Amino acid sequence: SSREELSAYLRQQRDTKKWREDVLQDVVRHEVSVHEDGSVEMKWSTDVYNSGDQAKDDYNLVSSAREISVPTFLMYGTDSFVPTDTGEKFVNALSMGTLELVEGAGHNVYIEYPDFVFQRANEFFSAEDL
Known about the structure:
There is one protein chain. The protein has helices at residues 3-12, 21-30, 51-55, 61-65, 84-93, 109-112, 114-126, and strands spanning 32-34, 40-42, 72-77, 97-102. It is α+β, with helices and mostly antiparallel strands. The strands form two sheets. It has a two-stranded antiparallel sheet. The protein has a two-stranded parallel sheet with strand order 3-4. Helix 1 (3-12) crosses helix 2 (21-30). The longest helix is centred in the last third of the chain and has 13 residues, at 114-126.
């Protein structure tokens, strides 16, 4: 019904309760639509955590990866609901792919470990061989 209620909800959920408070508040501020009555709705689908919905997903990132011709760096959480081998297959299909498994991270590595992601992304984009 409100940003405050959403904040409280996210602090209690298995996949979001480990988010830093500043990151959680960024999500609540910027990743919601506000309705006329003041209630809020996430801009991303809550079905992302629905394993039944995921089982029906037929989007094949591996076949798409073959078309990507630029250096690509994938950070993948070892605790993601998407199996690790999916990320490995995707990176192996890239012509210039690098995979970094982030131990203990879930699907949203950038939210769970923003400083680490910043550091590694900065190193990747600063590499002379790009």
